Amino acid sequence: MDVQETTAACRDAFAELASPACIHDPYPFMRWLREHDPVHRAASGLFLLSRHADIYWALKATGDAFRGPAPGELARYFPRAATSLSLKLLASTLAMKDPPTHTRLRRLISRDFTMRQIDNLRPSIARIVAARLDGMAPALERGEAVDLHWEFALALPMLVFAELFGMPQDDMFGLAAGIGAILEGLSPHASDPQLAAADAASARVQAYFSDLIQRKRTGPCNDIVSMVVGVHDDDADTLSDAELISMLWGMLLGGFATTAATIDHAVLAMLAYPEQRHWLQGDAVGVKAFVEEVLRCDAPAMFSSIPRIAQRDIELGGVVIPKNADVRVLIAAGNRDPDAFADPDRFNPARFYGTTPGMSTDGKIMLSFGHGIHFCLGAQLARVQLAESLPRIQARFPTLALAEQPTREPSAFLRTFRALPVRLHAQGG
């Protein structure tokens, strides 16, 4: 779509977001969609919201105006769910549940997956960051190019999850190798071979976590899996093994690729806006502001992947969304809505300085972690990894530069990378 010349309505925003032009830079099209077709009905019948106010309201209204698909409706939204392990696991995740089931499951995992537990990981995260940078240093100092995406952005969340789950690092690298295949298979437009590859990878993850749960039950350690399967004298309720496997599978999928993509985008922001690096050289409040602005400018998940079903006819912007329609939100477009964030295409960490996480100085909510009852369970873990990484990268490699243009994955859903080659010193420097 030529955004400069378009006057007619877009037939299918999801297809347009998958185009090479949007993979390279989706924001001109998102701007057009927000201005001309903010309550978009795609060819498949899905509705897509792109204005910040509409997205914020829809996320907040989940559990009221919107609900997840009921078990009897899964075939409608996931026609291959009857034969696909990956789709069955997706249907059982926390993000697909409504109260009171959602309330129970979230309470049980939040009981142990606390802010304190995540903060206790900070020394381990700092150690992992230092080790990965140490590993990159010799090649960089020899003037060679290093793929920061593979050597750091992917490796860090993998190793952090290994610490969190109490797994050997090699085991986590083995499981993580299949995450890309699973995410591709969960796309609404996935082919049968892609879904089969996703199911094979999901089966390996399911079998591993089933064995891990049993090992933690007999030999608990100081990790999240041991805590969740452990006995709580003040709480008789527990997660079943199937519920816990689904939870771990969902955490791995939701927190691995997205965190890696955000680290990549943060490094690109450091390189593109050197005048903003001072935020990473001061106090934790400045680092936090830089991290929040990266999350706003480049949300790793473009749109919501989970169906939200309208519980009644809903009118937004003069468009009626009928009862039982499937509604998704275009998170990345909302984050760059000028009605929410002034000069939204400008990278400006000052808009988040001194505020609570996710809120701008104007009181607007950054949408990358969602909102409402389905707010991302791993948001704080992702923020800690970024906060521990970026100042150390800046201090260790102050002359870091792109060796060549990064390569992106051809995904309409996740704005992720295949490679991010970097080296020390700019060309001719």
UniProtKB/TrEMBL annotation:
Its cofactor is heme. InterPro entries: Cyt_P450, Cyt_P450_B, Cyt_P450_CS, Cyt_P450_sf. Gene3D superfamilies: Cytochrome P450. Keywords: Heme, Iron, Metal-binding, Monooxygenase, Oxidoreductase. Cytochromes P450 are a group of heme-thiolate monooxygenases. They oxidize a variety of structurally unrelated compounds, including steroids, fatty acids, and xenobiotics. Belongs to the cytochrome P450 family. This is Cytochrome. It comes from Mesorhizobium sanjuanii. The lineage of its organism: Bacteria, Pseudomonadati, Pseudomonadota, Alphaproteobacteria, Hyphomicrobiales.
